[in-house]
Amino acid sequence: MLLWNLDTDEVTPGQWVTSRVHTDWCDVSPNGRYLVSLLADYSDRHARKVERNHGLSDRWAVTNWTTISRPPYFTALAVWFGGSYAGGGGWWDDDETLRFYGFSREWKEVRPAGRIRVKPDGFFGVPDPIGQRLERKGWLPYSRFQAQVSAPGMSLLEAAKELYAIASGDARDRREAIGRLLVRSIIPKLEMLKPGALEKSFSGGAVHYVKVVTKRNMWPVFESSWRIVDTEGDIVREWRDKSARPQFLEVDHRGRVVFGDEGCLWAWEDCPKGKPKLVADLRENRFSNVPPPPWALEW
Predict the structure, then answer these.
(1) Which of 27, 33, 122, 210 is most buried by its number of CB atoms within 10 A?
(2) Beta-strand (E) ranges in 44-122?
(3) What is the distance between the alpha carbons of residues 70 and 296, in angstroms, rounded to a whole number?
(4) Is 210 helix (H, G, I), strand (E, B) or coil?
């Protein structure tokens, strides 16, 4: 984790973490003091550590956990075990009020939230947490997402006949054929009618966040893309989500377009004129153990 001072463009390195960080379900409090994170680790080493430190032996329950920490450090002030990538993490109502995604009473609080008020959001599996956060931060709807859901196109009899044909066929092709059968017979058809988009304007145009539905391994999934457009609506630059690692694109308080791309941070002061300025090249950074300072351990 690191801090980017948008007034001076100074980048302050912070702390590394060996766990997977589900960035879609993370959020920084409005005053920048706290970060809520959703993390995951399915290793035996992690399970043994949690059992030793907290007495939790249910391996499934400890693979995902939510924390509150002080940026740019991951060392947790508060910890809850439980949830998954589709339930956990959260977003801030204000500087001292946190809402959980899909909060459950079965979650294990092993370190309390101190001064923070925690409220369940009650919604499990938020389909677009990035878009939800952007709307709270001033992005406006450019087009509303529309999709049509219809029932599977096969009857049970047709599905049974095809399953019999698969069972009597070549074993090498069975896995792929069964996957196709599941999609056709069980999974409802999801057809995108109109992509959804949010925008934030600046003097030379706008930045867009676009959500679409596509297929990945025969399953319908949500994917996102980011783009910069000029005042005529023509695309100046576009990023498509090819690796499940979301791009960072925003208009800062100085009216600059700021973004992350290929391990670098950029600021474009007179976009779309000129060129973006390289703020920091992070590609050579390597993991190291960074202990938190005393202030990062205090509320």
Answers:
(1) 27
(2) 64-69, 76-81, 90-94, 97-100, 108-111, 117-120
(3) 5
(4) strand
For residues 256, 12, 65 and 292, what is the CA-based torsion angle, rounded to 10 degrees?
-160
Q: What's the rounded Cα separation, in Å, for the pair 39 and 23?
A: 9
> What is the C-alpha separation between 68 and 46, in angstroms, rounded?
19
Q: From CA 19, how far away is CA 41, in angstroms rounded?
A: 5
Kindly write down the DSSP assignment for every residue of 214-277, as one continuous string.
EEETTEEEEEEEEEEEETTS-EEEEEE-SSS---EEEE-TTS-EEEEETTEEEEETTTTSS-PE
Question: Which residues contact residue 97 at a Cβ distance below 8 angstroms, ignoring those fewer than 6 apart?
Answer: 116, 117, 119
**Spacing of C-alpha 187 from chain mean position:** 24
pLDDT mean over 14-21? 94
Tell me the backbone φ, ψ of residue 230, rounded to 5 degrees.
-85, -175
> What is the value of pTM for the model shown?
0.79
Handedness of CA 219, 102, 30, 26 (dihedral sign): negative
Give, in degrees to the nearest 5, the angle at Cα 117 between 111 and 118.
70
Tell me which amino acid residue 24 is. Answer: D
| Residue 43 and residue 19 in contact, taking contact as beta carbons nearer than 8 Å | no
Sequence-separated (6 or more) residues with CB below 8 Å from residue 101: 25, 83, 87, 88, 89, 90, 91, 121, 123, 124, 126, 129
236 Cβ contact partners less than 8 Å away, ≥ 6 residues apart = 205, 227, 228, 229, 230, 271, 272
Distance CA 88, CA 260 (A): 25
In this structure, what are the phi and psi dihedrals at residue 71, rounded to the nearest 5 degrees? -60, 140
Distance CA 31, CA 188 (A): 43
Placement of tokens 């959001």 in the chain: 121
- The ranges assigned to domains in the chain are 1-126, 130-151+189-299, 152-187
List, for residues 186-235, the tens digit of each pLDDT value. 555 666 666 788 999 999 999 999 887 666 655 566 778 899 999 999 99
